[in-house]
Design brief:
38 strands, 32% strand, binds (2R,3S,4R,5S)-2-(hydroxymethyl)piperidine-3,4,5-triol
Length: 729
Amino acid sequence: MAIIFEGNMFHLTTAHTLYQMGIDAFGILHHLWYGEKTDCSMQYLYNYPDVGFSGNPYEAGKLRTYSMDTLPLEYATVGNGDYRIPAAAAVHADGSCALDLRYESHKIYEGKYAIEGLPAVYADDSQAQTLEIRMRDAASGLVAVLRYGVLEASDVITRSVVFENEGAEALTLTKAHSVCLPLMDGTWDWLHFHGRHTMERQVERKELFHGIQQIGSTRGTSSHQQNPALILCEQGCTETSGLCIGAALMYSGSFQAQIEVDQLGQARMVMGIHPDQFSWKLERGARFSTPEVILSCSTQGLERLSQQFHAVIRNHVCRGSYQLSSRPVLINNWEATYFDFNEEKIFSIAKQASELGIDLMVLDDGWFGKRDDDCSGLGDWTVNEQKLKGGLAALVEKINALGMRFGLWFEPEMVSEDSDLYRAHPDWAIRIPDRDPVRSRYQLVLDLSREDVREYLYGSISSLLRENHIEYVKWDMNRSICDWNTETLPSTRQRELPHRYVLGLYELLERLTQEFPDVLFEGCSGGGGRFDAGMLYYCPQIWCSDDTDAHERTFIQYGTSFFYPVSTVGSHVSAVPNHQTGRTTSLETRGTVAMAGSFGYELDLNLLSEDEKQTVSEQVEHYRQLQSLIYNGSYHRLSDPYADGMAAWSFVSEDQACVLVQGVIYRAVPNALRRRLRLRGLHAQAHYRISGEEQVYSGSALMAGGVLLPRVMGDDVSFELYLELVKKA
Ligand code: DGJ
């Protein structure tokens, strides 16, 4: 049993961790532990002094050491004498803001709860158990059901909250976070993943300080600037040792994660929808569900933590025909042509690609409406026959006749002012009456909270998918959202729109992905601006970044790897000099870096020399052979690119028999020793041969001493070693 309730305590046990809570005499739910498995109550570690200015609940009487301001509350709320960051806040009909949640009841059942209208980790009854704890604010009748999904074998615990208004009056939620996680002390580090367009998920590790530290997005999307995921770790924690806890929010809209180190040096982390643009009116009898947070804990360092997230995202978040299967190697025309193409050009790229063994031709932006640049056309999802003479179906047929599949780009959530759609429905764009809207890339955002908008998009996209043999969709989204306002809500409820937008997006994606289960949906938002577990529920891969420079990509993919499995990372070889940085790297280096993902090309292959074409064809074949190991093997970060002057990673098959080591050495240094790279995840007692070498090495030697990397000439030189087990002890 993963979940046990005994003596007023909840024990949530996974393969290697324990999560423990206790209910006290006042019905307050205490968080007691999340970490290494122990076999007793951890309550003995909590012992509070009478802290001045930390008040006491009324019924505590003279018990002045009992304060909401110091206790490790499992789900903290406002207005009850706890002055730290709350997870939830509400305004009641009388204008008061207090919430005092007390235990009412709980239930435990087999399987994993689902969340209405929102993506959530799924698992069958043999893989998960659910705990629901009902907490009630007696004065208002607001109930918060704290939900825990325990995936025992995966070392994962999910969190979500359902608010139910069982009171006599409506109330308004002003903060409704998905998780609150107390830590006994604040002497920890945290890692977060910041960035910008073309530079997503840069890793920053900082010591916690007294007070509040936070990340978030108010852009209506999870954003390039901050990824909705963080890691808390003990200060000495490394890739291979130490305690760390990861939290990934399964949500694609504005989010917030806060950590506070309080006056006693304890820490609390909360995470959920960003409250700055949020409120939700809960009528009598109404319910509100928060998005899910995936928690995982490792006592063996960051690598194990990442592997746990990779496994849960791959096996319990991603769905559809492509969830676990290999993906087609694709060619995308964006960096080859931008908007300047016609059917002949696209066909010529496809033809050359097919000759080199590439599976799928993706036609990117510019095929529809009046779209010769990014100033017009969005919303008009009818083929531009001036560019594609003969229409889409004819082009698809010709490409299919090459033995290639065909994929198409959409940016469904957007509208250009210069479009037939906007001229017909100006009210469908999100904007505030009497104010000029903020334009970004010259486009406005459609109000996806509206059913008629969703219906229009569903109709346009589904008929194109039905009428043409389209086997892949790139779902792009190219701006941050502001000017929040909708005709569908009264003025007092406008702050519901950002969340309703996300719900609308999910509804549309659900409808389309269910109706077209064999179409591969790839998410995108100017590259990786919406790279989150929410989108991965609908799209098993996401275009990782608009920066295709192999050198920069090693950093972006390094940061991405802390939470997201390689199979989710769309990664392409593009032309040199690179369009984003002007850097020239070899085709080999570009190939190696792109192979650590869902692989493809994004350049005009016709412009390559015969030698280069030969290399491409070999890369495609090589990737096909390695794809299963890359997707299913355990992923190891073997270097820190920020500190080590190189990026190095490896994939180890489950049976430890095959190991692929890849990387890029950033700078050549004269007269230097060959670099040594210590491997991980091998069978210590087994022996391995490196492809192309005669010598056999023991697993223990390769892990303790490492392999010698080739001596390189030039900058950004890639390497690849393939090891096979030759003898087990
Ligand atoms: C942004 C995407 O990230 C690119 O790959 C490309 O599809 C452009 N949008 C097209 O406008």
